[in-house]
Structures are given as structure tokens and as C-alpha cells.
Design goal:
The complex is a heterodimer of chains A (about 475) and B (about 120). Chain A is of the alpha/beta class and about 475 residues long. Chain A contains 16 helices and 16 strands. Classes of the chains: A alpha/beta (about 475), B alpha+beta (about 120). The structure holds zinc ion (2 copies).
Chain lengths: ~475, ~120
């Protein structure tokens, strides 16, 4: 067999995608990437999603190695296929390395002005990911001149060298989403899928605006990144309100993992987690809060161990149960905000109605293969799920089949969900209210589609026909695990 | 849930792709399980000299598609028409009960490709 039985099981959701298959997964396992980063905290989401993807060799060059040993042992338990190690200077001309990722804040990235060396005159294709609070740039380079040009530009524009508070929410959101995008780029580079040379993006996660960077607007985006200013945001106040907030996450899987991870990092007070499943090996291509040693354990328990490890002060409330008609109202009422991290249409309708009726914001996401969507439903203010799709049509989207999903795709969507939650709780920025964000990993494209509240909506319209929760027919006969 | 033969064909499918000058193409589109199978055949002197497939679906559907191409390649048209869905699952050493009905339809796609070839003749 091309892969071991264990590996086929672990990467099932990748292998099932024809563009990857077993051949592609094998190539990923043989690939080597070199990561330059400042701290272990910042690179951790990226390392988790590189590992989830099955990138076999990850070499890190870190400014501060504190915490790296424990990251190694966590990754060993998450995916034993992965070799994760520190790079020492002598190994820098490691011929195996096929891809480099430069990852950090502007201050850190400008340090490479002098020392991005090219060994034996061979340039290793590189990504630069650079962030300034909620804003960031990710750009691909296939030659030394344009890479140096980028870094020089950055250092010319940037003057504010002291004032970096890496631990505010904006940074956490940026390095998580950006790191996960880097894992996708590594995947695409290895399998030569898509056109990585065009994958240059400016992300403004505060306003949820995403722009493609072209050669002719690169300098203006660098300027924007260097001068963007979030000084009027009171991060201490955000910390305070976050610590008093209670967030319910429905589903501790592919979306629930990153959402909970980031909220724990950002210092949310209470996370409620509901999921009836136990950890399986085939979850581990995307569900980063679980691990091999916790296979067979209820997902909510496994998640709790991971989250408490990140933030011992976090209060985690677990419900090992399905979210259903019987418990929906009772559970939701204790929380300020709800994250929908399921991928079955019935639960989605149930959640929509329950949140509209209980007047709780609902942060939604969905994924399939290389694509994802996000939207945020704020009762009385914006659209809801039924504004778009008034009724659960027979058999609509209820496929029983195993579906493929590239691990980092739900990672990005789940991290965006946590960003939405932070913005709603702290009353800052612009959310995805009245919008759907669509992400395509192959085209490396984020697209916003504007929506409007439908006055004839059966649940949130002027004369609603749905005023209590109702049963949602399960059209799926074999009803295998549809959770992503 | 899958046996070793199925895992092997699922993870390392044989004869994946399209045949540029195919003279028969067959489809099966299974709405219930979401499996879409396309089989391409190249027939020369009554013999299937090449068989390829493209399948979007579950592991069982991919393994069955792979196996049916292996079984059909080099066969005469009438021999290929003898290949039934049950033969495919048998060659795979069995499929899970819930996959037998909805995902084991690769032989149907092969037969549809042969019908297409006959129509073109
Ligand atoms: Zn509505
Ligand atoms: Zn199927």
C-alpha cells in the first residue's frame, strides 16, 4: 500500500479528494518546510495546521525558543508522522528544504533585511507573512530580488519600532489566520495546485476586508500595513469584557477546534462545548485540539484538556450530547453568543431558529474540500439563515457520503469565527452581519457577498410563522458523522 | 471500516484520469450518497484497450471505480458487460453493508460507457 493503514485513516478526508489522493498525501509527508518565526506562541497555529496537513518535515528557526519543547511533545501526540525540530545555523543550507515561511510582526520581518541568504545560489521559494495587529500581508516570492525589495520597502515605511504588544486580540487573530494560510500555501506549493505566485493578499480582519495585492499596488499596501493604527482600541477593556463572556460552541470538531483555541488564547471567561462524538483517528487531519492519546475519549473532554493547557483560568463547560430540540433552549440561554461548528443542515436550521428566538448572536461557518464560508447572524439587526433559505428542502445538502476537506480550511473558518465573537463581545470592528464571506483555498480568494434581511423571513421577518422550535426531519438515512 | 484491498484501491487508485480519445464515456450519478462516477473507455477491435475513471465520492466509490477499471481492461465488450457490481465488491473483498447499495455502482458506469460506445458506432 502507498501509505500505512493508519495513515489512510488519518488522512481519509484528504485522500478522498481526487486532487490529493494517496499519491499527493505521500508527497506532503515527504515535503520539508523551514519556518522563521519570533516566538512559539505565534507560530503554534501554523505548526498545528502544517502537521494536520501532513507536511512531514518542519524545521523552525526561532528568535525565542521558549516553549518549543512542549510544542514538540504536543505535535508528537497530535501527529507522529511529523518531524518537528529546531534548525541550527549549520543546517541552514539544508538541501531538503523546498519552501520557506517568514512569519512575524513588522519589526521581526524587517530584521531579515540583511540576512536572507541564498545558499549555493539557489533561492528557496518563500512566503512572507507579516502582521500589524488586525492587518497583515501574505506574499509569495520566487526570487531573491523581489523578496529583498519587499523587506526593504517594509523597513523604509515602518518607523514605529517599539510599540508592539503581541498579545492583544488583533495579533492573536492575525497570527492564527495567517499561520493557517501559510499551511495552505505549503500544501499548494508541494502539490503544485493553484497559482501560488498570484497568492498575494492584504487582510484587514478588523473590517473583514481582503484585497489581492498586484505588482502595481504592492507599495501602497505596504504603506497601509505600516501605518495602520489601532491606538484608540482599549485592549485592557477588551480583556475585561472577554473574561466576563460566555461563548457556546456547538461541535468540537474541525471548526470548533480553532474557534475554541483562539478564544482560549484571547482570554474568554467561559466556553461551553457540546458534542456527542468521541475522538477518532480520521478527525486528526483537521481537528487540532484532539490527539492520538485521546482517541476514544469524548471530544468535549479531549478539547477541555487542550484548552485548559492553553489557559488554566478558562472555565470549560462540557455537554456530551447532541444539540437537539429538547436541549437547545435550555443550553443556549446560559450563553452570550453561539458558534455554529457543525456541518449538517438540520442542526443549522435548529440553531438559527433557536438563536433568533432567544436573541443570541450566532456565528456560522461551513466547509467543503477547499472552500469555506462564514457569516454572522445578529437577531433584529441582520439577516438570518432562513432569510436566504426559508425552508429545509427535502434532501437538501444531506449527503451521507464521506466528504473531503483540506485540514487548514476549517482552521481558517474557525479562527474567523473566533474573530467575529471577539468583535461582537468587544463591540469593535465590522462583523459579517448581512454578509457571507466565501473562501477558496485554491484561488486564494476571500470574497464578501452582501445580503439583506428578508422582510418575509419565516422566523425573523415582520410576520414570522415560526415562533417556537420545531422538529427537523433527518433525511440522511445512514447518518454517518456529518460533523466537520 | 474498510478492508485492506479497499484501502489500497481507495488510497492508490489505478487508472485515474480521462482518455483524450475515448470512444465511450459513461456516468453514474448517485444522488443519495453524493457519488459521481465517470468511466472512459477506448475500444479497439472489440477489446477495451484502455479504461480510466474520475470519481468524486466516498472511499467505497473510489475503490470500486478503480477495481472496475482493473477488471475491465483488456476484456472484450461482451466480457466487460458480464462484470456486475457484485463482482466488483467481491474483487474488493467486500464492502460495508451501507455502501453496497449506494456506492457500489462503478460497473453500471462501465456498462453506460459501453452503451455510449455502441451508440457512437
Ligand atoms: Zn431571517
Ligand atoms: Zn458513497
Amino acid at each position: 500500500m502507498i501509505l500505512s493503514k493508519e495513515q489512510i485513516n488519518r488522512y481519509l478526508r484528504h485522500i478522498i479528494i481526487p486532487e490529493i489522493s494517496g499519491q499527493g498525501q505521500k508527497k506532503l509527508l515527504e515535503f520539508s518546510v523551514l519556518v522563521y518565526g519570533e516566538t512559539v506562541e505565534e507560530i503554534s497555529p501554523m505548526i498545528y495546521y502544517l502537521s494536520a496537513t501532513g507536511i512531514g518535515n518542519i524545521i523552525c528557526h526561532l528568535h525565542n525558543v521558549q516553549g518549543f519543547e512542549s510544542l514538540i511533545s504536543n505535535i508528537k501526540d497530535y501527529n507522529p508522522d511529523i518531524s518537528l525540530k529546531l534548525n541550527d545555523e549549520n543546517e541552514l543550507n539544508n538541501d531538503e528544504v523546498k519552501f520557506r515561511i517568514f512569519f512575524g510582526n513588522i519589526n521581526y520581518i524587517t530584521n531579515f533585511k540583511k540576512n536572507v541568504s541564498v545558499k549555493n545560489n539557489i533561492f528557496i521559494p518563500s512566503i512572507i507573512s507579516v502582521y500589524n495587529e488586525w492587518d497583515s500581508i501574505i506574499a509569495y516570492f520566487d526570487n531573491e530580488i523581489s523578496l529583498n525589495h519587499f523587506i526593504n520597502n517594509l523597513s523604509n515605511e515602518y518607523t514605529n519600532l517599539n510599540n508592539i504588544n503581541k498579545y492583544n486580540c488583533g495579533y492573536i487573530i492575525s497570527y492564527s489566520i495567517l499561520g493557517t494560510l501559510c499551511a495552505i500555501e505549503c500544501f499548494k506549493k508541494c502539490l503544485q495546485i493553484g497559482q501560488i505566485q498570484n497568492d498575494n493578499l492584504y487582510l484587514d480582519l478588523f473590517s473583514m476586508e481582503f484585497n489581492k495585492i498586484e505588482q502595481n499596488n504592492l507599495e501602497s499596501f505596504i504603506k497601509k500595513l505600516c501605518t495602520v493604527n489601532y491606538e484608540n482600541i482599549n485592549n485592557n477593556h477588551i480583556k475585561e469584557v472577554m473574561s466576563q463572556s460566555k461563548v457556546l460552541i456547538i461541535g468540537a470538531g474541525g471548526l470548533g477546534s480553532p474557534a475554541a483555541y483562539n478564544l482560549a488564547l484571547a482570554g474568554v471567561g467561559t466556553i461551553g462545548l457540546i458534542d456527542n462524538d468521541k475522538v477518532e483517528l480520521s478527525n486528526l487531519n483537521r481537528q487540532i485540539i484532539h490527539s492520538v492519546s485521546r482517541i476514544g475519549m469524548p471530544k468535549v473532554e479531549s478539547a477541555k484538556i487542550f484548552l485548559k493547557n492553553i489557559n488554566p483560568d478558562l472555565n470549560v463547560i462540557t455537554y456530551m450530547d447532541y444539540f437537539n430540540l429538547e436541549n437547545a433552549v435550555e443550553i443556549i440561554k446560559d450563553y452570550d453568543i453561539v458558534i455554529s461548528a457543525v456541518d449538517n443542515i438540520q442542526t443549522r436550521y435548529l440553531l438559527n431558529d433557536a438563536c433568533i428566538l432567544a436573541n443570541k448572536p450566532l456565528v456560522e461557518a461551513g466547509v467543503l474540500k477547499f472552500n469555506g464560508t462564514n457569516t454572522t447572524i445578529i437577531p433584529n439587526e441582520g439577516h438570518c439563515y432562513r432569510c436566504l433559505f426559508p425552508n429545509l428542502g427535502a434532501g437538501s445538502g444531506a449527503s451521507c457520503s464521506e466528504t473531503g476537506v483540506l485540514g487548514p480550511v476549517p482552521g481558517i473558518m474557525g479562527f474567523i469565527q473566533s474573530a467575529e465573537v471577539i468583535k461582537i463581545i468587544a463591540k469593535i470592528g465590522i462583523t459579517l452581519k448581512n454578509k457571507i464571506l466565501m473562501f477558496d483555498a485554491i484561488d486564494f480568494d476571500f470574497m464578501n457577498v452582501n445580503l439583506e434581511k428578508n422582510p418575509n423571513c419565516p422566523v425573523c421577518g415582520k410576520n414570522p410563522s415560526i415562533t417556537t422550535l420545531q422538529t427537523y426531519d433527518l433525511t440522511c438515512k445512514t447518518k454517518e458523522d456529518n460533523k466537520i | 471500516m474498510y478492508n485492506d484491498i479497499v484501502l489500497d484501491h481507495f488510497s492508490d487508485p489505478r487508472n485515474v484520469g480521462e482518455i483524450a480519445d475515448a470512444n465511450g464515456i459513461g456516468y453514474v450519478n448517485n444522488a443519495a450518497d453524493g457519488d459521481k462516477i465517470t468511466i472512459y473507455i477506448k475500444v479497439e477491435n472489440n477489446i477495451l484497450t484502455d479504461v480510466k475513471f474520475k470519481t468524486f465520492g466516498c472511499g467505497a466509490a473510489i475503490a470500486a471505480s478503480s477495481m472496475v477499471t482493473v477488471l475491465a481492461k483488456g476484456k472484450t465488450l461482451s466480457e466487460a458487460l458480464e462484470i456486475k457490481n457484485e463482482d466488483v465488491s467481491f474483487a474488493l473483498g467486500g464492502l460495508p453493508e451501507n455502501k453496497l447499495k449506494c456506492s457500489n455502482t462503478a460497473a453500471d458506469a462501465l456498462h453506460s460507457a459501453i452503451s455510449d460506445y455502441k451508440l457512437r458506432e
